[in-house]
Amino acid sequence: MPSRPWRLRIQDILDAITPIQQATVGISYEQFEQMEDLVLHGILYNFMIVGEAAVNVPDSIQSRYPQIPWRSMRDMRNVMVHEYFQVNLERMWRTIYEDLPAVVAMLETLLQQEIGEE
Question: What is the C-alpha end-to-end distance of the chain, expressed in Å?
Answer without folding.
Answer: 20
